[in-house]
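Reopening this one. Same input as before:
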Amino acid sequence: MPVEVSEVAADPAAGTYSAAQSVHLSAGAGTTGAPEVLYTVDGSTPQALSRQYSGPIDVVADTTITARAFHVGLKPGPLSVLRYVIGQQPSRAR
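Same output, byte for byte:
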């Protein structure tokens, strides 16, 4: 059974921020060669014709990035739903 590609990680992590963010996405396949990361910002599930991640995504307003990693010969990674809220103070843990 093929190994699954890892989940897409985001830097900075999804959350609430007081200012715009430049979001970097990454995923590892556990093999040689980097997986392809596809994403959407319209709430749909990434498919073959979705945008391919090639550099930082500028998030200037409330945005949900839905991303998934793909690698030839491996099962696609799990869906990552990354919600960014911009223009509010981050909530503090209590």
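So the earlier flakiness isn't reproducible anymore. For the record, The chain has a mean pLDDT of 88.
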